[in-house]
Model the fold of this input.
Amino acid sequence: MIRATKLAAVSALVLVAAAAAAQDDGFTKKFPLASCQFISVGGNRYFPLIPGRQLYYSNAACVAAGKCDALNELWITEERETKRITLPIGGTTRTVVTRVVQERETEDGELVEISRNYFANCWPSRDVYYFGEDVDIYKNGKVVGHESAWLAGRHGARPGIVMPEDGFITGSRYYQEVAPDVALDRAEHKRTGFATRVPAGRFDNCLEVEETTVLEPDDIGHKTYCRGVGLVKDDDLELTAIYANPRPDDDNDNDNEDDDD
Done:
């Protein structure tokens, strides 16, 4: 999920070294999945899952300041669609209904990527888990690749946590993606309890997360999440507008479903 970071080609030697480093790197990668009753709506206060909501991000301020060469834009849409993902949990096979969240990225108006991400809320902890993503990379209007795509339950991939419920402790470390050789993004809590201002407004009760991956150790990203809103900053991208259009029956979780096959 690190923006603009897609693994195109990694040598066998690098992959072996990365796998070894991931074995015991101080980041939690095993989670109490068996105790979860997964649902596809709700989320938590720092990562809401609200079908019909769309958030728009831009680095226009960075461009205007002369610090960025290209205008990058990102639309995150929490779809009404769900996806059923079957995977082994706690010694048995379970099917989890996940929320589809689409990310659409452009650079200077040209489409560069569309990804469909799959999240579910663990009840009663309200930790939001990440179950994978389908990725389309674009060039000149055509799909040219699917780098970094993964799905829990396939090829040894397991869910990671994208955002824990309010148990945000500075210094906490955990894996967001657990897909060997493909996606091994990690999160570390850096600071909390501050306010931030972006084009969409001023937000309180914010927290900062640093993201890294053993596959590309020099790539470091920073995200800011604010209570009641979710992602507000993604490196130089800033939340610019929120479009909310939920249906009254969204909480019934009767959306159209897509199987994992």
